[in-house]
Structures
1.
Amino acid sequence: MQIYHSPLDLQVTAWKWRSQGVNVGLVPTMGYLHQGHVSLMKHARDRANKVIVSLFVNPTQFGPNEDLSRYPRDFEHDVAVAEQAGVDVLFAPTPLDMYDDGSPVWVDVPDMALRLCGKTRPTHFRGVTTVVTKLLMLAMPQFAVFGEKDWQQLQILRRMVSALNIPVELIGCPIVREADGLALSSRNVNLAAEERRQAVNIYAGLTMAATRVADGVTDVSQLVADVQAYYERSMSLGRIDYLEVFHPFTLQPLASITGPARIAAAVFFEKARLIDNMALNNDLLSDPA
Ligand code: AMP
C-alpha cells in the first residue's frame, strides 16, 4: 500500500491509472477506521482494480463549537486496517495540503443541506460537498463508496454529482452495527460507559418505528411522538437534536407514510453527537443508484 500526503502525488497516479483505463474506486473517510469503514473498502476492493482510501478530518465540515479538536485519530491503526483491507493507496493530506488561503470556494446543495442535520449544523454539508468534490477531482475514480449511516450526506452527494455532471458512480453501503444495534461510529469512543449503554436506544427507537409502520401506522406525528417519548425515557444522558420522518431521496418531511419513507435521529451526549437512520417500509425503498 502506498501512502500519499500530497494532493499532487495522488493526482499524478490517478491520471496515470485513468489514461490506462484502470477501474478506480474511492472511499472517503475521516479515519479512526472501524468495521463500517472496512465494509466500504471491501465493497470497493471487490469492484475495483485500484482502491484509494482518503483519511482526512476535514475542518470545513465542523462548525466553530463542534468536536474538531477531539475528533479521534490513530494514524498507525488506520494504516494497518487499510493495508489489511487490501487498499492500494491511502491518501492522508493535512488541512494545509487541501486548502490554500485564497478567497474561499464552496460547492453547496443549499436546500438539502439545511434539512435534518443541517438545522443544527448549517455549514456542515457544504464542507462535505466541497471536500468530496476535491477528492473526486484528485482521485478521478469510476466510483466512490459511502455509508448509509450518513444517509443525508449520501443523498446530497447524489444530487451534487447529478447536478454538476461529475462522471462518477456513487455507491451506498448498509449500516454496520454493534451486536446490540448501535451504529458503528468513530465518535462512539467519546461516550462514557453509561452513555454507551443508553445510546443503543437510538437504534431501538428507530426499530420500534419501523415495526409500527410495518403494522400499518401511517400518521407521522403520532409515530414521532411515541419514539420521542421512548428516547426521553431511555436516554436520560442524551438530548435529542432531531427525530424526523422524511422522503428518502428529497429529504422533505412527510406528514403520513404512503410511499418511500425513512426515519433519522440525532442525539447529543456530552462529548459525542450520534446519528442513525432506518427505512420505514423496506419493500418500497431502494437506493436510486
Ligand atoms: P466518517 O469517517 O465517519 O466520515 O465515515 C466515512 C464513511 O464511512 C462515510 O461514507 C460513512 O457513511 C461511512 N460509515 C461510517 N460509519 C459507518 C457504519 N457504521 N456503517 C456503514 N458505513 C459507515
2.
Amino acid sequence: MKKIIVANWKSNKNQEEVEFWLDTFKTYTDLNNEVVIAPPYPFLSLVADKVKDQKDISLAVQNLSAYPAGSYTGEICVRNIEGFEIKYAILGHSERRRYLGENHQDVANKVDLCLAGKITPIICIDVDYLEDQASAISSENLEKCIVAYEPPNAISTNGGENPSVKEVSKAVIKIKEIFGEIKVIYGGNVTPDNVSDYLSTTDGVLVGGASLDAKIFEQLAYKE
Ligand code: PGA
C-alpha cells in the first residue's frame, strides 16, 4: 500500500516562489508513495497544471468552508474548487483551532461537506481531544476520514519536540479504536532524517516546514 506524503505549505510562498518550487521539484512515474501537495488557494491552478498528468501526485486544500455555496463572503467552499480534482482537504489543523477559533463542530460540519463533494478529509488531531472530535462527527463519516496525528508541540514552528516512534504507534492504535480501520498519518517536524521512522508505524506523513524547499521535500517524498 502506498504511503501518503503531504506537503502542507500553510500560508507561505508568493507566485514566483511557487513557480520556482514547481520547476525544481522532480516528478517521476510509478512512485512508491502518493505525494499530495496542499498549496495556498491562489496557487491551486498553477499546481494542478503541473501535476495533471502525474497519477501519483494529488492535490489537497488546507481548509474548506463549514458552509455550502452561498452568501458567505470570503469563504471557499467545495463548489468553488470543483474541477481542480482536489482529492483531500486538511481539516482542523491545530493552527486553525488556535488562531482562528475552529472547534470540533466546525470540523465535523466541514467533514460532512467535504465527503458530500467526494473529497477525503484529513483531520488533524491530538490524542487529548481525539474522543471529543470524533464524537462530533457522524459514525458513518468516521471511517471515511484519514486522521493526521499531530501533537501541537511537535510542529516545527512550536518547538518541534518529536514524539518517539513508540508514542506515535500508541496514538495510531488509539485513533483506530475510535475511528475504525482508517489511514492514520503523522505530522510534526518530519524531516528527511526521521521520515522512515514515522512511516514504519503510520500510513504517511503531513509535512510543513520541510515541504517548502522542493529539494528537501523530494528527499522525503521519494524515500523507500
Ligand atoms: P511542520 O508542520 O512539519 O513544520 O512541523 C507540520 C504541520 O503543521 O502540519
